[in-house]
């Protein structure tokens, strides 16, 4: 599934761009807790995206080989999100909880934007 790897690489580049923007915001503004929450949530979001991509490739390989298929790691991704929220709740003076949650959702926004831009490119 090389096309899945290409899509993931595109998403990773977008997320790294956002993370660099968040680091600049953390370093140069007075909203450090908000940007630190975005950094934490987006990092966990990228990890979850990497995990689901890797397990999807394994899933496809197992189906092609006719083997039994394990889960796609829903529990691992939920545990990562729960970890981020717990850390934000434990250190509210350093991490803004709503920013962590928005950061966790960032990958889905990136996926939707990438999908629409790829559809526009394919129609032109």
TrEMBL record:
Keywords: Cell membrane, Membrane, Transmembrane, Transmembrane helix. The chain crosses the membrane at residues 12-28, 34-52, 95-116. The keyword tRNA-binding does not apply. It is a multi-pass membrane protein. Its main location: membrane. Pfam families: ATP-synt_I. It is found in: Cell membrane. This is ATP synthase subunit I. It comes from Rossellomorea oryzaecorticis.
């Amino acid at each position: 599934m090389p096309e899945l790897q290409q899509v993931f690489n595109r998403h990773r580049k977008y997320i790294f761009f956002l993370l660099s923007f968040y680091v600049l915001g953390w370093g140069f503004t007075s909203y450090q807790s908000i940007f630190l929450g975005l950094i934490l949530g987006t990092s966990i979001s990228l990890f979850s995206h990497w995990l689901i991509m890797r397990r999807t490739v394994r899933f496809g390989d197992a189906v092609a080989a006719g083997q039994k298929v394990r889960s796609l790691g829903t529990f691992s991704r939920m545990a990562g999100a729960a970890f981020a929220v717990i850390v934000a709740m434990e250190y509210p003076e350093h991490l803004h909880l709503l920013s962590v949650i928005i950061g966790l959702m960032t990958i889905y926004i990136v996926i939707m934007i990438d999908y629409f831009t790829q559809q526009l490119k394919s129609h032109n």
